[in-house]
Structure formats: structure tokens, C-alpha cells
């Protein structure tokens, strides 16, 4: 089983465990904030399942109907996760509003905070693992899932502070108030996840730093050519796509032009694994003098 798939399956197991702990913490205390925290964990479980499905689909090889592969499936999962984060925040705001209208004392707050703290620690460790490994594997779904879990960690910490202050001061209004404050932070986080995922679905170009790296490889590996222009890039999940026009001397043979293309593709593969390169060879009179100048 691929590493990304193992991590996605692990998120399901962690999600079930954390949801159980947070639900127990709410049941012991009756805290609106802890209830909201538990409700967000149901979203964690749903998004972990979505990430698992997306990674399985994205791992499928290209076929006749999807000749460029299924990599964008991970972006759909990440968008779904962002939307569900936002929905969870709105639901928490609703619960906080009812709590503000009728605040009530909490039962067994110490026990509830201890159990919720254990769930938070588990989430924090797993969020770190997901984000780190997701970036290493270039998996948007895993990174989005990890970032979602980090928002859950922030939520839990904020909730714990609110419950603790309410217990120490007797101001039970702090319980739903803290839930509302944290919900606003979750809204902001969810909107960022959606924005980043939509950029991938819209075929956003690779970063400026990566573009510079690609141009350096072309300039170094295209000896014998004249220039490269009309460089276009995009990324889809863990895959990168690059295309450009390569200008060669008019008298150059097809064999020699093909050898140059092979060198360029090999050089790009060394610095950017899992990249598809499409090169359109043109004669010298097509030169634009605006592209990548080849180092001869």
C-alpha cells in the first residue's frame, strides 16, 4: 500500500479515536464549547474519508478517458475539506449563540478537560505528521487534512482556556463565548484551504522559484539549440506539467533535435520528479528573442 494511502487510512482511525474522547468530555461536562469541539471532530472523520478516497483515485494510472491521469482528484478532496471546515464553524457559532442566551454551570470540568487534552495531543501529533509527509509526497489532500487537524488543535486549546476560565471565575458565559471566538478562526482557516485548492483546479502555474529552476535547466541542457520560449507550467496534485517551444538551427537533423529534448527532459526529471514535459521543436526563423537563451 502506498505511503499516502496508509496515512489517509491512519487519519480515519485517529479521527474515530479523537471523536470518541471529545464526545466523552462533552458528556461529562455539558459544555457548549466542548460539544462544538466534538462536532468539529465529526468533520475531521468525514474529511479523512474524503482524503482516502481522493488519494486512491489520484493514484490510478492514466487511461483512455483520462490521458493526463487522475491527479486532480486530490484537489476536489481538499476543496471539500475546506467547505466542511466552514460548515463546522457555522454550526459551532449556532451552538455558541444558544449558549450565550442561556449559560449554565459545567459538570466535572476537570475530568472533561483532561480527556479533551488527551484528544488534542493525539490530534496535534497526527497533524504534524500529515502536513510534513503530505508536503514530502506532494499530496494536497494529506496537507489539507493536516491543516484541518491543526485548526482542530487550535479549537481545542481555545475551548480548554474558555472552560478553565469559566470554572475559575464562575463566569459560565465564557464557555460559549470562547466557542464563538474559535469558530471565527476556523472560518478563516477553511477559506484558506478552499482558496489554495481552487488554484490547483484552475491550473495555476508553478511557483516563481520553480520556474526559475526550470529555465536554468533548459539553458544548461539545451546546448546546440538557439532558445526556448512560450514556457507554460501547471500542477495537478503530485504531478507537474511543462511545455515550451525549442528553437533549433534550421539545418539540424531530427535526431539531433530529439537528443537535445531528451537531455532537457532528463535534467528536469532530476530536479522535479513526476513531471511531464512537452517540447515543440521549431526552426531558427521562429525565434522570438524573449525566451530562455541557451548556454553554449
Description:
The structure is a single chain. The chain is α+β, with helices and mostly antiparallel strands and 296 residues long. The chain folds into 2 domains: 199 residues, Cation efflux protein transmembrane domain (Alpha-lytic protease prodomain-like), CATH 1.20.1510; 86 residues, Alpha-Beta Plaits (2-Layer Sandwich). The chain contains 8 helices and 4 strands; from the N terminus they run H-H-H-H-H-H-H-E-E-H-E-E. It has a 4-stranded mixed beta sheet with strand order 3-2-1-4, covered by helices on one side. Helix 1 packs antiparallel against helix 2 and helix 1 packs antiparallel against helix 4. The chain is elongated, with a radius of gyration of 25 Å. It starts with a helix and ends with a strand. The mean pLDDT is 81.
Amino acid at each position: 500500500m502506498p505511503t499516502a494511502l496508509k496515512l489517509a487510512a491512519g487519519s480515519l482511525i485517529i479521527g474515530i479515536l479523537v471523536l470518541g474522547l471529545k464526545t466523552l468530555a462533552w458528556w461529562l461536562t455539558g459544555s457548549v464549547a466542548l460539544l462544538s469541539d466534538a462536532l468539529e471532530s465529526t468533520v475531521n472523520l468525514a474529511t479523512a474519508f474524503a482524503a482516502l478516497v481522493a488519494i486512491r483515485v489520484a493514484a490510478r494510472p492514466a487511461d483512455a478517458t483520462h490521458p493526463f491521469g487522475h491527479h486532480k482528484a486530490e484537489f476536489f478532496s481538499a476543496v471539500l475539506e475546506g467547505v466542511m471546515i466552514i460548515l463546522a464553524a457555522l454550526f459551532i457559532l449556532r451552538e455558541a449563540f444558544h449558549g450565550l442566551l442561556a449559560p449554565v454551570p459545567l459538570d466535572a470540568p476537570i475530568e472533561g478537560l483532561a480527556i479533551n487534552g488527551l484528544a488534542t495531543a493525539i490530534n496535534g501529533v497526527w497533524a504534524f505528521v500529515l502536513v510534513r509527509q503530505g508536503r514530502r509526497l506532494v499530496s494536497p489532500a494529506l496537507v489539507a487534512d493536516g491543516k484541518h487537524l491543526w485548526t482542530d488543535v487550535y479549537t481545542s486549546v481555545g475551548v480548554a482556556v474558555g472552560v478553565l476560565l469559566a470554572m475559575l471565575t464562575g463566569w459560565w458565559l465564557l464557555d460559549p463565548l470562547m466557542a464563538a471566538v474559535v469558530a471565527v478562526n476556523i472560518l478563516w482557516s477553511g477559506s484558506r484551504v478552499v482558496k489554495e485548492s481552487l488554484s490547483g483546479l484552475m491550473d495555476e502555474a508553478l511557483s516563481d522559484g520553480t520556474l526559475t529552476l526550470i529555465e536554468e535547466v533548459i539553458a544548461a541542457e539545451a546546448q546546440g539549440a538557439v532558445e526556448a520560449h512560450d514556457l507554460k507550467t501547471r500542477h495537478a496534485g503530485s504531478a507537474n506539467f511543462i511545455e515550451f517551444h525549442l528553437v533549433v538551427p534550421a539545418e539540424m537533423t531530427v535526431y539531433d533535435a530529439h537528443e537535445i529534448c531528451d537531455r532537457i527532459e532528463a535534467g528536469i526529471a532530476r530536479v522535479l520528479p513526476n513531471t511531464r514535459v512537452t517540447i515543440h521543436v521549431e526552426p531558427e526563423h521562429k525565434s522570438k528573442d524573449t525566451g530562455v537563451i541557451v548556454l553554449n
